[in-house]
Structures are given as structure tokens and as C-alpha cells.
Amino acid sequence: MAQLAPEQLTQLAAQFGTPLYVYHADKIREQYKQLTTAFNGSNVVFFYACKALTNIHILRFVRDLGANVDCSSINEVKLALHAGFPAQRVLYTSNGISFDEIEEAVSLGVNINIDSLSNLAKFGKRFGHNYPVGLRLRPNIMAGGNLKISTGHDKSKFGIPVEQLEELLALIREHNLHITNLHIHTGSEIKDVEVFVKGIGVLFDILHHFPELRSIDLGGGFKVPYKEGDGATDIPLLAQKVKEAFGAHPVAQALQIWFEPGKFIVSECGYFITSVNVIKETAAAIFVSVNSGFNHLIRPMFYDSFHRIINISNPQGPAKNYAVVGNICETDTFAWDRELPEVREGDLLVFLNAGAYGFEMSSSFNSRYKPAEVMVNGDEVKLIRERSNFEDLLRGQVPLAP
Ligand code: LLP
Fold first, then answer.
1. HSE (CB half, 13 Å, CA atoms) of 74?
2. Which of 357, 265, 379 is nearest to 4 (CA)?
3. Atom 19 of ligand 1: nearest residue by CA position
């Protein structure tokens, strides 16, 4: 398993300073390989859901691995094109966006999944049968690690609810729409393979209404382990179930199968290195304050997510329990009551699984700088984003009158 050694992380912290995001490209390659190996022999294409991590060096790396890319905004589309993806390898799965963005996506020639009857009607009026398009459907399936990251259930804003099929078909007829893809994405951190099987069932039930289909897009959401002993999506089992289902269907067997993994590709490649500023002993806990906060890694505060933390400066220290917190001006807890080898001021604490939705969801709240990003590929170490600075905080603000 591709992994960076503590000594190397220590060295990178010394070289680039902290807080620092480090991405291990070898791990990305390994994850992608797992997918292509499991699905070998099927007509499957993986679109990397780049919302997880959009650094253009990561995008370029993923492109060179052979993956396509899935985008969640027109700017992600532009970043993907900038990184060198040809338009036909770019997918824009939209959600509640303005029609202007859809028109722009068409002008860029990328694949589009439309998620509302309203935008589909506008699309039909403007493009009719001329531009092939996909439909983002809501399958009414509850799945995912927590409600905030569940997207396919019957109270979710995402997609065209499948129960609106009649209206949808009427629109397609009215505008002679050219529907080539059906898409669902039920959530993130889906461990249970049966969720995908259920989703396939929902799509297979309506397939015959879409004679021009070329692909079925089952979205992303493969689970990776965050905790010790945490399970993950069984990718070989998923591949087997998908192959069985598609192989047994007279129409679907000719279709291409698309997936949009984000976390699976980049979560485990990421290490977030912080330094301990202050240790504060109190009756409630020993607080370890690091030089970061939810401004840099929001997942623990936003989703109650668990990230393993390692003390790479004192691995042999006696175990103690700590509250690991940030330096932001409100409750900012990374981990409560976490056992770690004794932590001292100046020690380096590293958060694992920091590649997906880490830097990407960071902000400069409290006017703190955003971390630098470094990519390690074999023996090559490359700074891929500079730490932000004071000029960045001022950028875009209208200068004060003298
Ligand atoms: N496709 C679509 C249409 C999506 O909305 C998403 C994620 C993905 C693919 C990729 O899902 P993944 O394979 O990464 O689970 N910020 C949250 C995750 C939000 C995911 C939103 N959509 C987190 O940090 O857990």
C-alpha cells in the first residue's frame, strides 16, 4: 500500500512549513488501478469527481492515469479543460444552476447532466435534438455516511424525482430532446453495494423510455476507511454485481457504465500536517491547539467526521488522551478524547484521509492564510500551491482611500 513515511512528512514540514497539505500521487494511482482492475472487461468509464480536490496538478495527474472528470460547477469545468482534459472527457453534473452556465457548458462542448425540469425545458427550447444531454434523476434511495452527504433520498433537492417521469417524457417529446445518459448519485460514503444494485433497478425500470441512451451513470460515493477497522466499499463485489445486472439486461448490456468517484480516488492520498502551538491542561481535557482549524479542514466540525491523527514527532511517547482543537475564534474541535502518544508544543500532528474535501473546503476565516499544497510522486516532490499571503487577503477588496 502506497504510504508516506513519518520521516518524509517531517522533512516536508521542515521544507515547506505548516499547516501543509501533502498528496501522495502513488496512492491515487493505486486507487484508480483498483477500480480499473475490478471492472476489467466491462464497458466502464470513471469520471473523477474533482470537487474533492481540484488542484490542477492533481487534475493533470488523474487525466494522465486515463480517468475522465466530473465537475460540479462551470469553473470546475474550466479548470478541467485548463488541466488538459479534452471536452468529451469532461462531464458537468449540474444542480440548481443558472441556464447561462448550461449554455456555457454547451459552448465548451462538454457532457452535461441536467437536474431539473425547468432547466430541461429551457435546454429543449434552445437546443432541441442538437446537443446530446444526460438527465440527473432522483431515485428516492436513502444512502450515505450522514444526512448532509445523502443526495438521492425522497426529500433531497438533487435531480428530477423519478415519480415525475410522465412530465419528463412529455418535455422530451415536446422538444425532441436527445437523451444519451441517465444519472443518479445517492450519496457519499456508501459502503453497502446493494445501494448501487437498487439504483440500477430504478434506472432499469425506466430505461425503455429512452431509446437514444448511450450510458448509465451511477454517480460516486464509494466509501474509504477513515477509522481503524472501518469498512470500505467492496469494489470487486460491486464490479461483479454491476456486471451481472448489466449483462442480464437486453438493452443495458450495450450501454457504457459511468461512475464518479471523488473520495475513493483522493481521500487516502492526503496528509494534513499541523504544528502544536499550545498545550492547555484543564479539568475537562488536555487541549492541544494546532496552527490550523476548521478554516483548513472543516469535515470534523461540519460532519462530525473522524480523521485519524498521528503524532509524528513523538511516536514512542506514552499514550494520553487529548482534545485536539484549532485556533479559530469559535468551537473548533478536530477530535475529543483522542488517545495519542504524548504531545508536546512544537510537535507535528498529521491528519490522515485529508485529500478529499480538505483543502477544497478550506477558507480564510479569521483572515488566516490557506495552507500550501505539495504533491509527492515517486521520488519527485513538487509544491503545487503556495501558502496564501497577506496580498491574497486584500485581493479583490477595493483599496482604501488614502
Ligand atoms: N457525483 C456527484 C454528482 C456528487 O454530488 C458527488 C459528491 C460525487 C460524485 C462524489 O462523491 P464521493 O465519491 O466523493 O463520495 N464534502 C463531503 C462530501 C460531499 C459530496 C458531495 N457530492 C465530505 O467531505 O464528506
1. 14
2. 379
3. 149
State in Å: Cα 156 to ligand 1 middle: 14
**Domains of the chain as residue ranges with CATH:** 39-261 (3.20.20.10), 268-394 (2.40.37.10)
77 strand-pairing partners: none
Q: Quick check: 335 pLDDT over 90?
A: yes
pTM: 0.97
- How far is Cα of residue 42 from the mean position of the Cα atoms in its chain? 24
Mutate to test the pocket of ligand 1, among 77, 188, 267, 304 (most ligand atoms within 8 A of CB): 188
In Å, how far are 46, 60, 111 from 68, measured between CA atoms?
A: 6, 11, 11
Render pLDDT for 74-114 as a digit per residue (tens, 0 to 9). Answer: 999 999 999 999 999 999 998 999 999 999 999 999 999 99
Strand partners, 279: 288
Query: Is residue 314 a contact partner of residue 342, using CB atoms and an 8 Å limit?
Result: yes
Tens-place pLDDT, residues 172-220: 999 999 999 999 999 999 999 999 999 999 999 999 999 999 999 999 9
Residue 105 C-alpha to ligand 1 middle, in angstroms? Answer: 21
Q: State the DSSP H helix or E strand holding residue 114, giving kind and residue range, or none if neither.
A: strand 111-114
Closest CA to 44 of 23, 20, 68: 68
